[in-house]
TrEMBL record:
Its cofactor is Mg(2+); Mn(2+). It catalyses: O-phospho-L-seryl-[protein] + H2O = L-seryl-[protein] + phosphate; O-phospho-L-threonyl-[protein] + H2O = L-threonyl-[protein] + phosphate. Residues 21-318 form the PPM-type phosphatase domain. The gene is Orphan71. InterPro entries: PP2C, PP2C_BS, PPM-type-like_dom_sf, PPM-type_phosphatase-like_dom. GO terms for biological process: signal transduction. PANTHER family: PROTEIN PHOSPHATASE 2C (PTHR13832), PROTEIN PHOSPHATASE 2C 42-RELATED (PTHR13832:SF760). The keyword NAD does not apply. It comes from the Eukaryota. Belongs to the PP2C family. This is protein-serine/threonine phosphatase.
Length: 365
């Protein structure tokens, strides 16, 4: 289900240090709930001068995305290989998230984020056990039917290190040309399909949206959480139908590098990587701040026929020479920031429309 009218209130923030300037903006859009989360730590580690940016696109509820946004970068910082082998640290930390969420100790936090019936029931059982201390602790399964994709970027020295599990994407603009620094992990990719089928599942095709899915369900082949697809006891975590194991890429920063885009698939459903780079480049000519550019990008995407998803975008600009040299004409005006009260009213109208539609459907049955 989706809302008849999108919730277009945007949560936006920005910041900078001596090397980088960033902005991030997120919007619920047509979805019934906001399931995206993000984390930005400009100075994750002072000794190595490491900056961290992460986008977490949730599905089945916001619990896993919010949990990872809170914990992944902290666990990464604590990993023994963080200072001398970032690839190993990122790979182990992604897998570590699943280990942590399987543990009962994560249950209270995850259930507090809610978002689906499983967490509501678990939360209720926890509260009941507080009043009945002699009762057995409620069974805990972890995030069985909910999860999130994760695309994280670390900038250290003269390197961009990208870790990605899922279909969020990191794009580098170099001399105005888009360079993908991550793979959109979909079930129909040959290596992904082979792993999925070896784990005892099947890849199916849905004409609704023209997407490939696993067992007619989830449409990504790598994610954090989604433990129902990671239940083959004969296989390790990397061989499961859905794995949290990330692809890690490293790119050297050059004088021609202008900015990075890190965004969930709600953006990439509407724009190609090059189109997103061109959009940002045109706004940059108008001397518009990064926060306004991010908001303009969300407004543009939600107006597209395929713009039905939650949307989150992080824009990172390098404070180095090599910025765009050719000035464009016909620059579109910067977006007008939306008044919160007006957006809330739109959200209330959307919710009312959704409830009305539900009532009509019920009456039809």
């Amino acid at each position: 289900m989706s809302l008849a009218v999108p919730v277009t209130l945007k949560t936006t923030q920005s910041g900078e240090n001596e090397r980088l300037e960033y902005a991030v903006s997120a919007m619920q859009g047509y979805r019934l709930n906001m399931e995206d989360a993000h984390a930005i730590v400009l100075n994750l580690d002072a000794a190595t001068g490491t900056s961290f940016f992460g986008v977490y696109d949730g599905h089945g509820g916001p619990a896993v995305s919010k949990y990872c946004a809170r914990h992944l970068h902290a666990e990464l910082r604590r990993h023994e290989s963080f200072r001398d082998n970032l690839q190993t640290a990122i790979e182990r930390t992604f897998l570590r998230m699943d280990e942590m969420m399987r543990d009962r100790r994560a249950g209270r936090e995850l259930s507090g984020y809610g978002g689906n019936d499983n967490w509501k029931a678990y939360r209720k059982a926890i509260n009941m056990s507080l009043f009945l201390p002699f009762c057995q602790k409620p069974a805990y399964q972890g995030p069985v039917m909910d999860g999130c994709t994760a695309c994280v970027v670390l900038i250290r020295d003269n390197r961009i290190i990208v870790g990605n599990a899922g279909d969020s994407r990191c794009v580098l603009s170099r001399n105005n040309q888009a360079i993908d620094l991550s793979t959109d992990f979909k079930p129909n990719l040959p290596d992904e399909r082979q792993r999925i089928e070896a784990a005892g599942h099947v890849v199916t095709f849905s004409e609704r949206g023209n997407v490939h899915r696993i067992d007619d369900g989830i449409a990504v082949s790598r994610s954090l959480g989604d433990l129902m697809y990671k239940d083959n006891n004969d296989l390790g975590p990397v061989q499961q139908a859905i794995t949290a194991f990330p692809e890690v890429r490293t790119e050297e920063i050059t004088q021609d590098d202008q900015f990075l885009i890190i965004a969930c698939d709600g953006i990439w459903d509407c724009l190609t990587s090059q189109q997103a780079v061109d959009f940002i480049r045109i706004y940059s000519f108008a001397d518009v701040g990064l926060a306004s550019i991010c908001e303009a990008l969300l407004a543009h995407c939600v107006a597209q026929p395929r713009g039905r998803d939650n949307m989150t975008v992080i824009l990172v600009r390098f404070k180095t020479p090599g910025a765009c040299q050719v000035r464009a004409s016909n620059v579109p005006p910067p977006p007008i920031r939306q008044d919160a009260a007006a957006s809330q009213a739109a959200g209330s109208q959307a919710a009312a429309a959704s409830q009305a539609a539900g009532s009509q459907a019920a009456a039809g049955h």
